[in-house]
Amino acid sequence: MKRENKVGAVIIMHPGQNNYGTSLQGLATVKFLQKEGMSFDIIRYNKRRTLWDIISTVPFLLMSGALKAIKRKRQKERDKKEHPAYGELLEIRTAKVQTFKDKYFEPLCRYYTGYKDLHEGSKNYNVVFVGSDQVWGPLSLYAKFYNLLFVDKSVPTFSYASSFGVSNILKWQIHGTRKYLNKLDLIGVREIRGKEIVDSLSNKKATVVVDPTILLTREEWSKIADESNINYKEPYIFCYVLGQRNFIREQINALRDKTGCKVVYMRHIDDYYDPDEEMGDYAPYDVDAIDFINLLRHAKYVITDSFHGTVFSILFHKQFSVFYRVNPSDPKSTHSRIQGLLSTYGLKERLGETGILDKIDNRIDYDSVDEKMNRLREESIAFFRKGLSLGATHSGEK
């Protein structure tokens, strides 16, 4: 068959997902490919599973955390019923985010229904890559999608800034993880821990690359943010907090009292949390990913426990503080990706607990930060181009 001389891109964009970091890394990937002059499809997969497929995978899904995900989804539905105002506001946010996706992603999407169609469709492309975010989490193994196991062996594959989302691979997933890692021609991961996992489990060596959002410069993001109509004129603290620690909320209020700044607070991003109903002088819901970065870039201060909240604080040269999403003494806490990010740019003092707000006005040497970021950006662009070039000799007749 004759290939379509296109790149196939598998980008994480869950339907109904309102996480702004997810949207922004997808947008950055699309913008980068367009700058490179690439013709590409975003591959989307409509699953069509037999009863046997479902029965055979259920035990593994349950062991990998599916039950927790189901409970969380059901809890969200209960919260929407118990708190009708929250449900209505969540619909506003979801609709705004969906409009963003419809504009920037949907025209590029190509859908395949059923695994056979997905596999055959992979032959349309010269190269297929997956990126970015937590695409290799425990639950993703069995769909054979984000790990690119669906791609025909004749088509080169690679990953860009993929993350496992966990510090260790579950014992019963080691064999399957090794299988898809060994199948990839080139592996780019977002975190050092991800590289350690790849290097120890497979016969490949991974390269740590920057998150796709860092592939675009501050100037490029500012131009994108100019499309937003949301802006508060008075000085404000922008708060993007995903966890449910009251300690962080106390610190936000303390900073408000100390500075006299208003608080712009993004409520209930992942889950409903009752104390958030009292947070913020402004709590906008009619906000998409572009509005999000516009709000962040105009803030006097940023408080976050989010990886992408941290990334954009650095990109836009903000005075910011990052808090641990869960108590750092909790043995289940995983903060390595934010710690690694801040360490890379010499900003470790921005992450902490008691006393961190005393440091929020400390001068940040953004000249030094930009120098490191520019170097890592160029290295990562070179890696991305290397991956895309894998398909150069695979076009034509099959």
Structure description:
- Strands 3-2-1-4-5-6-7 form a seven-stranded parallel β-sheet, sandwiched between helices. Strands 9-8-10-11-12 form a five-stranded parallel β-sheet, with helices on both faces.
- Helix 3 packs across helix 4.
- It starts with 5 loop residues before the first strand and ends in a 10-residue tail after the last helix.
- The longest helix is centred in the C-terminal third of the chain and has 23 residues, at 366-388.
- It is of the alpha/beta class.
- It has helices spanning 20-35, 51-63, 66-82, 84-104, 115-121, 174-183, 192-201, 218-225, 246-259, 289-297, 307-315, 336-344, 366-388; strands at 6-10, 40-46, 109-113, 125-130, 157-162, 186-189, 207-208, 236-240, 262-265, 301-304, 319-323, 351-352.
- Helices cover 42% and strands 14% of the residues.
Please sum up the structure shown.
This protein is α/β, with parallel strands linked by helices.
Order of helices and strands: EHEHHHEHEEHEHEHEHEHEHEHEH
Structural class: alpha/beta
User: Which word captures the global form?
Assistant: globular
β-sheet strand percentage: 5-15%
Extended strand count:
12
**What is the residue-mean pLDDT, rounded to a whole number?**
89
Largest sheet: 7 strands, parallel
Question: What order do the strands of the largest sheet run in, or round the barrel if closed?
Answer: 3-2-1-4-5-6-7
Radius of gyration: 21 Å
Output the number of helix runs: 13
Measured between the Cα atoms of the first and last residue, the distance is 5 Å
- Quaternary state reads single chain
Helix content: 40-55%
Q: Which residues form runs of ≥5 with pLDDT under 50? A: none
